[in-house]
Amino acid sequence: MAHADRRIKGRGILRHTSRHRGSHSESPVNVINPRAWYCLRPCKLPLTLSARKHPLSTVAAVVFAMMPMIGVISCQSTGGKDQNVQEPRGSPGVGSAVIGGPVQGKRAVNGKLSGALAGGTIGNYLERQDRDRTAAAIAVGYLPEQGELVKVEAVEASPTTARRGDIVNLTSTYTILTPNNQPTMIRERREIRHNGSVVANPVIDVQRANGTFTSTLLITLPPNVAPGTYDVTTTVSKDERTSQSMTSFTVK
Predict the structure, then answer these.
(1) Could you tell me the pTM of the whole model?
(2) Helix, strand or coil, per DSSP, at residue 69
(3) Other C-beta atoms within 10 Å of 248: how many?
(4) 44-103: per-residue pLDDT in tens?
(5) Sheet holding 13-19, edge to edge
(6) Residue 62: enclosing H or E segment and its boundaries?
C-alpha cells in the first residue's frame, strides 16, 4: 500500500490519501494535526474545513475539541455533587416536617389546647414510613411467635427551648408488627403537662401497615403562654398493647 500526505497550510489538518492495491480510487481521510490542538479558543479553533465538503468531519472535530472544556464547565457548575440530591436533616426545625425523608401525608387531629397553652393551635400531623416489615422485624429482632408488637423507639420535642408564638414539633418514631402482616388500626396520643396539669391531649387513630413510622404533630404556642417546662408523654397503642416514651420542652 502506498501512502501520500498533503498538508493544508495553516489549517492544522492533514489530508491522508490512501491508494489500495487493486483499486484505482482514492479515499481522502481527514486527520487532525496533533500540533494544532494547543488552541482551544472558541473563536480560533484550528478547524477550517469547508462544512459543505466535509460536514461530518467538521462537526466531529469541533465536538471532540470542546470535550475538555465541557468537562471543566460541568464540574464547576455542580461543585462535584449532585445538585438534585437532598441531604437528610438530623432533626426537624421549627415549623418543619418530620426528621429527614419525604412526608407521605397529612391528617386531622382530635383535641385542643387548654390551661397554659390556651389560645394556641394544633397544626398539621405529618407522617412517613421509615422501614417496611422486613427491615423493621430485623431491627427489633421480631418473630411471629411473639404476637403483635407495638414499640415506641424515639420521641423528640423541637426546639427544646421555645418562645411565645413559636411552633413546637412533637415527633415520635415507632414500630408496628403483627404475625399475619395485616394492616391494623393504632392510636397515637400526645399528652402535654405543665406543672402537673394536662394542657393538651391530642389523639389520632390511623391504620398502619407493618413497619416503622415517624409522625410529627405541630403545635403553635399562644402569645401569652406560661413559661416553664412542658412534659410530653407519647403513647402508641393497639387494643391492649401499648408503648410510651417521654420528652419535654421549655418555654422562656
Answers:
(1) 0.60
(2) helix
(3) 14
(4) 444 444 444 455 554 445 444 554 444 433 333 333 333 332 233 333 333 333 334 444
(5) 2-8, 13-19, 26-32
(6) helix 55-78
